[in-house]
Design goal:
By secondary structure, the chain is of the alpha+beta class. The protein is about 20% helix and about 40% strand.
Length: about 140
């Protein structure tokens, strides 16, 4: 388990990866929680002119994944995602900010369950509700 806000650590670690390419910025990554955001630009859009659902999932899943790492029990070596579910309720346009918060719902020895929410900061409306289950990995 990591102590304190690890946002800078994860921001550096994501350079050259999908979260980095999507321009996700982290406000907080700590044991049991994470929050971050991105400003919608062309690379986040689908060919139909709307925000691509995968951009939203990337934000939410990454928040849960980073917070999962920060919340791993001592001795665990990592995690893998075993299930995700997303309900979409709205969207965002280019130039608007999509923010998320993630929180630990269940922190067991073998699994963690996370809930996250994406909000269009410009309109204040909830865009998506997300839940994932992470399997905690242990040395063999």
């Amino acid at each position: 388990m990591m102590d304190g806000n690890q946002a800078d650590y994860f921001a550096k670690r994501q350079k050259g990866t999908l979260p980095g390419d999507l321009g996700i910025d982290w406000d907080e990554v700590a044991s049991g929680k994470a929050s971050g955001h991105f400003t919608v630009r062309g690379g986040h859009m689908a060919a139909n002119g709307f925000l691509h659902a995968a951009s939203v999932v990337a934000l939410l899943d990454t928040a849960c994944g980073y917070a999962c790492v920060a919340s791993l029990p001592e001795g665990a070596t990592g995690f893998t995602t075993i299930e995700i579910k997303t309900n979409y309720l709205g969207t965002a346009k280019e130039g608007e900010t999509v923010a998320c918060t993630a929180r630990l719902v269940h922190g067991g020895r073998l699994t963690q369950v996370w809930d996250a929410e994406a909000v269009n900061q410009t309109t204040g409306k909830t865009m998506a509700l997300f839940r994932c289950t992470q399997m905690v990995l242990w040395p063999r």
